[in-house]
Design brief:
The structure is a homodimer of 356-residue chains.
Chain A: H1 10-15, H2 26-43, E1 49-53, H3 57-66, E2 74-79, H4 82-93, E3 97-102, H5 111-116, E4 123-127, E5 129-130, E6 135-136, H6 139-144, E7 150-154, H7 166-169, E8 173-175, E9 189-193, H8 195-199, H9 212-219, H10 233-249, H11 251-271, E10 287-291, H12 302-313, E11 318-319, E12 328-332, H13 340-354
Parallel strand pairs in A: 2-3, 2-4, 4-7, 7-8
Antiparallel strand pairs in A: 1-9, 5-6, 8-9, 10-12, 11-12
Helix pairs in contact in A: 2-10, 10-11, 11-13, 12-13
């Protein structure tokens, strides 16, 4: 119940025992094609270039920017948490002129401020679901006013659990991870690229490993399956197993389940007398943040509470990250764990450790 | 029996069913520490900075260069196959002054030519085991004469199956993959960095995802386990399972087993009347290359032979890559598959399909 990895769907666990296939075996290419199609469904997109990148969610962030940013490009980044900061750092290393638009951690971004920040940004980056604060940012509003800019959306903590609408929004690039609301282990970064963004991809970006043009030649059947790197076969099979479970339930049913579980968790934490951290009305169901109370029982500090939860109850929750270290806890409610029974378990354990 | 992935060790398969652990769970950090120590044993090194990178073998290549190369650096690359070419491409994208030292594909590099190619190279890159040709290059001879240069060694197709001696050679950076002679699925890139290379790492390399300095802060216990990206927990557990199997057998015993199986495969192919491709005396045991005969039985082309092997015998072998496409087959003899019984299976199947 931390900020990810979450416990995988049973179908993902089963898939982990599949026999090894070669990365060019027709049987594996069928699995890869199916996985890409499942990702289109969860991203709500028709984008042909939709695939699981061979790295964790942060590789999705790096690929998004490294394939688009040219030195000197104005890149507007909304920053109201650790992952907005990370976008600035990645863009900065690529030589972008980074324009930061800040909001306090725990508050949502102001979409108007993001849109006013530069007269002609080449790229605008927004984190949909800030894993460091539990806040949902209003991507639709930014997308509606983006003009000629390319919109890059980080959906690491939302995809599969919180509504993501790539085509309806008009997002140009959207990336996520495998280990949160998609219910697989960490190791892959689902990513989708609109035709407009695809036309803007750099031809020979500084990264060879994450070069989306070369990767497309292997992933898309029309690309002739040109060898780029050896696909992480096992992880793709496992992600496929997780996505099958998610889509068998139904994407909207999964959103509703995350919503119900997240709300129950928030209510239960308040019933324990704890104070939620993220601004009301902008709270994620998939990642709930709560302030560490000042009156911890004798001798316990915040890390001690987490240690007791893990050692005595088998429940993991997350610490605060970045400048929120020591101040909040982050409780995930993602994928297979987004269920009332998991919420009840974490609330009971936390109540016991806190003596409430 | 292709050029990788190979069938994983049973211990790796078992580990794939392990419960999910958080990337900061003490139980997972124990697995990670053990995996890094096992990698030191297979690399034959004392290097503290030794770890499984969160990407495939190509991510290891990119990390090696992206963390060292500064624009304008003279980088000498030995090129006698596809992976030498790839090193040139990766270094070129990073702004290096690439100095190519070529040998014909199928022949080994001339170490003297590599050492004479530039008066003061900052980096020298050599592929130990060329997966595209089946040739072993003489890393020790290049290392002995490298002077002030940093030596980067690609051990993707040798580590675990063919002697790699990072410290004895004096290699500065050495990377590999998980899915060949280490006997795990693809998805991780083991890498080791000498203290001298570590002191030369760029402070803010263009890649954030593969920034070895930041990754060290998480992987090394002394770095305070600073969060960088979410470690691919399942794949690390699986690699740990494979390495335990390999080291329980013994590294030298594994080398001897690969040597015996590779020799039997080479002898068996010649007994079928086929001609080996790689130069005699420089042939890898882990990856055997053989010329496609001109007298294929009626109606079959080289791809048809591979298809029949796969569909009728459940045996995968690899096609030629790059400029050798259509001219050779590549047969892996790696990890769990480096056994006489696997060799007998592939020889029997190939004999049947070729009518020999």
């Amino acid at each position: 119940m931390g900020p990810g990895p979450s416990n995988p769907y049973p179908g993902a666990v089963t898939a982990a025992g599949s026999p090894m296939l070669g990365h060019l075996d027709p049987a594996f290419l069928d699995v890869l094609d199916a996985t890409c199609e499942e990702l289109r469904q969860v991203f709500r997109t028709e984008n042909s270039l939709t695939l699981p990148l061979s790295g964790t969610g942060s590789a999705g962030m790096e690929a998004s920017l490294a394939n688009l940013v040219r030195p000197g490009d104005p890149v507007v980044v909304g920053v109201n948490g650790l992952f907005g900061e990370r976008l600035c750092e990645v863009a900065g290393r690529l030589g972008a002129e980074v324009v930061r638009v800040e909001a306090p951690w725990g508050q949502p971004l102001d979409p108007e401020a993001v849109l006013r920040a530069h007269p002609a940004p080449r790229i605008i980056c927004v984190v949909h679901a800030e894993t460091s604060t539990g806040v949902e940012n209003d991507v639709a509003a930014v997308a509606a006013g983006k003009g000629e800019a390319l919109l890059v959306v980080d959906a690491v903590t939302s995809l599969g659990g919180v509504p993501v609408e790539v085509d309806r929004w008009g997002a140009d690039v959207c990336y996520s991870c495998s280990q949160k609301c998609l219910g697989a282990p960490p190791g892959l970064a689902p990513i989708t690229v609109s035709p407009r963004a695809r036309a803007a991809l750099r031809e020979r970006p500084p990264t060879w490993y994450l070069d989306l043009g070369l990767i497309a030649g292997y992933v898309e059947a029309g690309g002739g399956r040109a060898y780029h790197h050896t696909a992480p076969v096992l992880m793709v099979q496992v992600l496929h197993g997780a996505l099958q479970a998610l889509l068998a339930e139904g994407l909207e049913a999964s959103w509703a389940r995350h919503e119900a579980a997240g709300r129950a968790l928030q209510d239960g934490l308040e019933a324990l007398g704890l104070e939620l951290f993220a601004a009301k009305g902008h709270r994620l169901s998939s990642l709930v943040t709560v302030k560490v109370p000042t009156d911890l029982p004798g001798g316990l500090d915040e890390a001690g509470v987490r240690r007791r939860l893990l050692e005595e109850h088998g429940v993991e929750i997350g610490a605060g990250a970045g400048k929120l270290a020591g101040q909040i806890w982050r409780i995930g409610c993602m994928g297979h764990n987004a269920r009332l029974r998991s919420v009840e378990t974490v609330l009971a354990a936390l109540g016991e450790v806190l003596g409430r």
